[in-house]
Each structure stands twice: as structure tokens, then as C-alpha cells.
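TODO from last week: model Mobile element protein.
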Amino acid sequence: MITLGAQTQVYLAAGATDMRKQIDGLAALVVDVLEADPFSSQVFVFCNRARDKLKILVWQHNGFWLWYRRLERERFWWPMSASEGPVKLSAREFQWLLDGLDPTRVQAHQRADFDLI
């Protein structure tokens, strides 16, 4: 299980990524495509064309973490248009993505406000 701080930003690289890339290749994509700093301790997520594999790159203290997730039957929600640029998610929305939900369509319960008389 991946646990992230509440302030951690997650960046999705829209479109398909070649899953043969390892840490150095993905870090280069973070700089070139996402225009971000791979050493920033933020989370960078890449997906393949079939949307059944994710690679997650994170810098922590003195080295990179590279997580890999493969689904056997389902597909991840993923922004396939690279022209939109990177998509930012909160740590909570990222967990929804890993749980199989579309983070753009998840809706919470309506807030209930009561006036005290």
C-alpha cells in the first residue's frame, strides 16, 4: 500500500508511456514532458496505452522509488489526451484512481448545515 502525506501532489502524465522505461527514462519524462522536478518528493504517474499498467516514480530522501501496478482484468481511468498537459491529483484522489475510480467523477455526500434556533 502506498501512503502519502495530505500535501503531496500527484502528477499524471497524460497519454500513453512506454512501460519499458525505468527510473532514468521516467525522470527525463518528468523534466521534459511534465516540466517538473523529479527530486521534488512529489508523485509522478505514467500509464501504458492499454491502461492496465502504471509506473509511479517518487524521490525520497536519497533515492527514487519505482512502483509498478498491473491489473489483470480491469482498466485504469486515464487522461489519454497529452495536449491537456499533466493532470494534478491530491493524495486522496490518487488513492481513488488506484482503487479503480475515476477521480473526476467521484462525488461526496452533500454537506448538511443546520441553523440552531
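Done. Residues 14 and 84 are 7 Å apart (CA to CA).
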